[in-house]
Amino acid sequence: RTETRSEARTYTITAIPADGVGQEVVDAGRTVLDALARESRGAFSFSWQELDWGSEYYAKHGRMMPEDGPDLVKDSEAIYFGAVGWPSVPDHVSLWGLRLRLCQGFDQWANIRPVTFLPGVESPLRRADSSDLDWVVVRENSEGEYAGFGGRNFAGRPGQGEVATQSAVFTEVGCERIIRFAFDLARTRRRKISSVTKSNAQQYGMVLWDDVFQRVARDYPDVETESVLVDAMSAKFILHPEDLDVVVASNLNADILSDLGSALAGSLGLASSANLNPERRFPSMFEPVHGSAPDIAGRGLCNPIGALGSAALMLDHLGLAAEGENLQQAIAETCRRGILTHDVGGTAMTREVTSAVIDHLQ
Ligand code: GGG
Question: Which residues form a coiled coil (predicted)?
């Protein structure tokens, strides 16, 4: 007699906590994900590879990650990342040496940053109730102002009249793929898209972006469109947030707008994100939007919600959509019950929020 036994699906995930509170929030995320796997009663599990890259690694090796680092990660199904940046390493060195090296090396050209208003979390927006608000910032994640082109002369020699250049690069292919991605996302939501540039002042690259946006829009007649300058969009985030659904912008503008959005939702600590390689040739990377927060690092005070929301986005990406939704609901229920860290007006520690989320999983 042959006996058939269904095998558990094991997902190989690389965890890179990196700096400061990155350690604590990745730990929280792994605890919750492993709890979900246990609840699945053998249907799936996670096989973790944890890497010690970051600013401490830099102190020992003079670089944020090994030269052949990407080779160690490329076969993972996803990367779960914490935060980068520490006072001992110049910020541009740590950012380019780790986070951007992974994003750009793995062609994670679409960065999704939902702006989610959670129950029980007070928003600084002057509204009686902000629970109806929810929009998504789609960040172009491979070029634009982060192309990395430029240079300095007489660097480190004050008084020599130093000049530095920093060029933004906008390609038709780069603009079109992120704009189409955003339109496709809008079709799964409320079918409204806002394209953000500063094309009155940035008269080459961002005018190309606007032209591509108008051309692509013709393929999506069912989606309402607008083109807004970034300064006006910043005001709109505050004055008319109910008009927003999908907001697509260049690398720098979207980074700034998503921080503003998450602050309006209550705290940067709540914001989650997915750096996607939509073609799935390389692993995608999931991380909270916030940085390493050296002022509170190592004290168990940081908000794990941004990292837990990113874990939910990762579950969705792995094909575990129901589990991702389960986690999102558990996060919302935890907040509704007022189990909140100090950045959102509560007194709970990181581990208390994490345990509450686990308790509220279905
Ligand atoms: N988890 C996100 C993170 O570590 N961010 C650090 C940072 O400085 N990011 C700037 C950027 O990516 O533009």
Answer: none
